[in-house]
Amino acid sequence: MNKYLKDLFYEKRQEEIQKSVGVVCEECNQKAYYFNTKNADFFSVKCCLICSKEKEKGILLEDFLFTLTRKINNHYELIQNDSSETATVSLKQILKRFTYDNDLLLEKLADLLCQDSNSFYQVKGLYRSKVDEAFIEKCKKEAIEEWNQLSKDLKHNRRFTHVEASRFYERLIEACMHTLETTEEFNSALKTIKMGTVFYRGRLVKDNFHRDLLLSNPGQELCAPPDYLATNSRMSPPGISFMYMARDPETSIAELRPYVNDTIAIGEFVSTKEFKFFDFTLLDKLKHGDANILDDPKNDKYFQKRYLLSSLHELISRPFRATDTSYIETQMFAETIRNYRDGFFDGIIFGSSQRDGGLNYVLFGDYLKDDSKGALTRDYHVKFNDKSGIQFYQVLKMEAVTKKMN
Fold it and tell me: Would you tell me which of 19, 88, 219, 394 could form a disulfide with 384, CB atoms 3.0–4.6 Å apart?
């Protein structure tokens, strides 16, 4: 920018500052999404409407207008002559949602908005949110239908080149992320588990020879198999080995789907690092925050997919008789989680379909090069607990819970 334009901009800004009806200082303008990034110099001291202190940096009330005038109607509609409406809010209540809870600030902002020729903004007007329960249920229904359609497509049409499915799963993961204040992020699905946590892993004992083999090298025999022996599982396809564990022996046994009189070997594995899990169980009772000022809920399909999150755990953990294609969609979703942000997550947590209240912990592991053999090995960052050794369990009873169908 040349000197002439800089001078012109400076003079224009000075004029805007002088004519401004009020300001919010930098210290008070920290929590309003997007607007908290618009703090600038006043080139003189100004009295903040919120804290009443003289400050040299912050945001003019007029600086809110450009975004507010163009975005509020994405979130609300003006109610015309309908006194029967109950779920209504005033213009000041809308402004409070997107800016700050200060009566003087809200009054001045409302006046500025209503000075515009746009009849949408009325000081005494009543507004209705475009995001209501009916809208949310519609979004959820459409997202579940898309999930099911992509699952069918992955199984019977396209699999390895399905870009739409990959993007769909990525958007679901990103929908779990929320920005707090300026830069801090909160992840609705993130569960951090500290180093030293005990997990359990089981193996069906085939015969006495197999029992002796397990006892001879329990750390290796109870660990996840090498890739070339990995079979089809809920979160991993054949040839890719993840480590499936539980936090209690009972869930480990149930997940093996044993028969009466089967013998199960159970070993403890202790984590050697802190783990970051994508925890599907955290999404069961997820309550979404309000859309931010820049969102467009009615037209943004990616925004609408966030309402699928509370149903996601049920979709990925529902029980069925496994076939070669049963797990395609969950395997692709797991692969997307594994590669998200270059390996941000160490694994996945989801509920057991074989034992009420049980949880499955799936570790992706990291590839390490074995220089002595020139081969790649996978490190799951857990260590077998030699002190506790292997515990053997015999299955005495299996109980089926049923319900009558019409």
Answer: 219
